[in-house]
Amino acid sequence: MVAAGALLVPALPGSASAASAPVEPVAAARPTPESPVSGKAVPALRGDAARAAAGAELSAQVLKRGEEFQAGHEQRRASADAVPLPPWSGSLHSVWGTFPTVVSDGAQATHTVNPGISIPSGNPDVVYAPTLVPSGKTCIEVTTFYWQGGNGVGAWDWCAASPGFAAVAWIDSTFLSTYTTTFQGLPAYEVLDVQTNALTNSWTAYLYNYTTSSWDALFTSADPVKLIDPHGGWSMFEVYTEYNSATGEGYYCTETYGTQFHAANLQVKLNGTWTALTTANSSVTPPGSVSSTDFGCYGLSFTLQTANSHWQVSH
């Protein structure tokens, strides 16, 4: 049984529906899961239009990776930055981030965006950073993606009969002025991905609207079958990259030079209580030190500003 709807906007338990007066998005107070729900939807492409915008390549990559994680597979690669990158064929897939080890009923996080990244046509690489899944029973993954088709924030529907992108909001001037504030000098949006009905396992992903001080719905989906999924979730930096013989590294490395990616203020809902990610309820994958050459790129650095609720990748 699958129920999915682009404009179904359930209110969060204990939240109000009325929006407050507009506020400036700069240095705005961080919302909480109990902040008002607007009853409105994030302007986005949905359904077939969203799938078309994301493209077949992105969809195939996310589906393949999701199946690998659901099966409990983890990739391990070991190399050193001092060693020249050997050429590779096909797409190199690497991830790093924090992985909740508990089955939660929701997650909230601050995600930075890099509107200046412009991956040109013909560049086969895709960067998903950050991409968020609260737990195995969730229906929706919220991912920030950068590729030759554009930069966007997408909702991936894991509860659909054929999983795929169900909503795509482009990171344009309207998105930036409505859904972002400033975090460590970068524009950042606030995401809430939460179960709204425990019986039907209905989930809604929200983005915080800083002009109305309320949560707008990005997408809603439900499937009670996933209630038995025992897996935890993830918040991670993820790339699919192919070898560029002209630079000796992945194609995306040129376009992302000088950028930072943050997932901060990560918290999950456990037994009705919102709890920050820590070393007790999450792990870092891969563990230990991470080499940028694992990602087909020189000069990447990986930092836990707060273990395990704030990770940063800089280039």
TrEMBL record:
Keyword terms: Signal
| Signal peptide segment | 1-18
Q: What is the lineage of its organism?
A: Bacteria, Bacillati, Actinomycetota, Actinomycetes, Pseudonocardiales
Name of the protein described by the UniProt record: Peptidase A4-like protein
